[in-house]
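User: Can you recover a sequence for this backbone? Please restate the input before giving your answer.

Assistant: Of course. Working from this structure:
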């Protein structure tokens, strides 16, 4: 398996809606963009699925693999239309500038609930690694979600059970 997106990084969104991509994530994005040596590194930001409070980010290679899976589904089926809408239509190819920053598109700012007034002031985002992808959150939403997940996650485990036992039988 290639290097993974891991960790969480707080990043300020500046007054021009720009945010710095963490260096560790940029290295993986560089490796996952076959054209990065000829041009600026690109990745795909998916903002579909209104149930989610974050945007999901894929390397160019990771998105190509997902697109191939979607394309393998029969044309016109409800599953394919749902996946096309949420992963293809409601997404954007993003370029990283020479300083390691990106501009958050208007649709992404709307998804994250970042108002123009907040961006002119000071608003924090969180980049959260999830192995093959990473997520960008509004910091307050991430903190709330993390607290909610902690309570839910403990229901998966018996008292004193090591969470690594959840991997039993994997691989």
């Amino acid at each position: 398996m290639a290097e993974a997106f891991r960790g969480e990084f707080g990043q300020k969104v500046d007054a021009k809606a720009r945010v710095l991509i963490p260096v560790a994530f940029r290295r993986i994005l560089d490796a996952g963009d076959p054209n990065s040596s000829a041009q600026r590194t690109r990745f795909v930001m998916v903002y579909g699925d209104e149930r989610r409070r974050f945007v999901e980010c894929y390397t160019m290679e990771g998105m190509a693999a997902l697109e191939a899976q979607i394309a393998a589904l029969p044309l016109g089926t409800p599953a394919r239309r749902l996946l096309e809408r949420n992963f293809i239509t409601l997404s954007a190819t993003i370029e990283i500038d020479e300083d390691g920053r990106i501009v958050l598109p208007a649709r992404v700012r709307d998804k994250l609930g970042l108002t123009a007034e907040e961006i002119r002031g000071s608003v924090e985002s969180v980049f959260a690694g999830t192995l093959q992808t990473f997520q960008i959150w509004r910091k307050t939403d991430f903190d709330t979600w993390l607290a909610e997940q902690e309570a839910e996650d403990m229901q998966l485990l018996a008292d004193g059970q090591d969470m690594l036992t959840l991997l039993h039988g994997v691989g």
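That completes the design. Residues 22 and 97 are 13 Å apart (CA to CA).
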